[in-house]
Design goal:
The longest helix has 30 residues, at about 5-30. The protein folds into two domains: about 1-95, no CATH class; about 95-150, no CATH class. The chain has helices spanning about 5-30, 35-55, 65-70, 70-95, 100-120, 130-150. It is mainly α.
Length: about 150
């Protein structure tokens, strides 16, 4: 396995671990406010953190209408998707627990990813749906079922 692949796997694992924590925190905030208020506050603070990173890494000059214009629609959609993700997890974690909510989230996300890869949706390259990939998806869905059932 190449170093680039190892790095990508590590980044994915770190993102997944942080995502679990964010889901629990989002649920906690939404229980003390409301889901829309929590989504708004979390996105505002996330925007501030991302803005600080842009400034610290000296990438602020790249934000012009020339660079933003072509990706504006995608950015708005990704932001709206983020609100749906955050809100749905805040609700699900509060009612099902973090493990069950994340299991459902990952299984559903994987189903969506299969369609994105298979048909090259959302500007992604087409990737074949091989038998091992299908088996992995089925196993993850079965795992989510086992985690969620009572």
């Amino acid at each position: 396995m190449s170093w680039a692949m190892i790095f990508a796997v590590l980044v994915g694992v770190i993102g997944g671990l942080v995502g679990s924590g964010q889901s629990a925190l989002s649920s906690s905030v939404s229980q003390r406010t409301s889901v829309p208020q929590a989504a708004f506050m979390i996105h505002v603070f996330g925007t501030l953190v991302a803005g600080l990173i842009v400034l610290v890494t000296r990438q602020a000059g790249a934000l012009t209408m020339t660079t933003v214009g072509p990706v504006l629609t995608r950015s708005v959609l990704a932001g709206a998707f983020g609100v749906v993700i955050l809100s749905s997890l805040a609700i699900a974690v509060g009612r099902l627990g973090t493990t069950a909510a994340i299991s459902l989230f990952v299984a559903a996300q994987l189903i969506g990813a299969v369609f994105i890869d298979r048909f090259g949706l959302l500007d992604q390259p087409v990737r074949l749906l091989t038998l091992p990939r299908m088996a992995g998806v089925v196993l993850l869905i079965a795992g989510a079922y086992l985690v969620v059932r009572r």
